[in-house]
Amino acid sequence: MDASDLLKGYEKIVYYVLIFLFAVIVTFSIGELVYIVYNSLTVETPLLLENHELLGIFGYFLLVLIGVELLATISAYINERVIHVEIVIMIAIIAIARGVILLDPATVSALNMFGIAAIVFALCSGYYFLKKGGLGRQAPPANPSPRYAPRSAAALSSLQARKQVQRARKKME
Fold first, then answer.
1. How far is the C-alpha of 6 from the C-alpha of 28, rounded, in Å?
2. Could you tell me where the beta strands, DSSP code E, fall in 29-159?
3. Is 2 left (phi over 0), alpha (psi -120 to 50) or beta?
4. Per-residue pLDDT tens for 14-56?
5. What is the chain's alpha carbon radius of gyration, rounded to the nearest angstrom?
6. What are the extents of the domains in the chain?
7. In 10 A of CB 168, how many CB atoms?
């Protein structure tokens, strides 16, 4: 057994531990979100949510959503060995949106607001160009040659295209 095999095994163990920990955190976060909603609707002001309660619930909901997306990203990396840039950018956009929702404009300086605006613009521009460029969703040529074998069949858009790629890989072997 060589060092690279040991490192790959260790890396796999680390990913599985991360997935397990993320799953535990997301599970408890969902439980806490349910408790917060229940408490807000029944105890403090029955069947009426005030603005600060709504903002807190939305912020916590987005935090749970970020956790779920991170869990999906790690899981996709383990299964496909591909980092989905689109998902990572979406997680960043959700995180910034959460920060903006919870932001109190009265206490934030204008420079901080411009910085947040620049980050939002950069992330949204990156997402737009990623979608416009079609990265990660390229279909194989109509008549694949044996040399064509993309590393990630998951990036292909249809089941038929995936089957063509699998046949091309078998021809290469």
1. 33
2. none
3. beta
4. 988 988 998 999 999 999 999 988 888 887 677 777 777 788 8
5. 22
6. 3-135, 139-173
7. 18
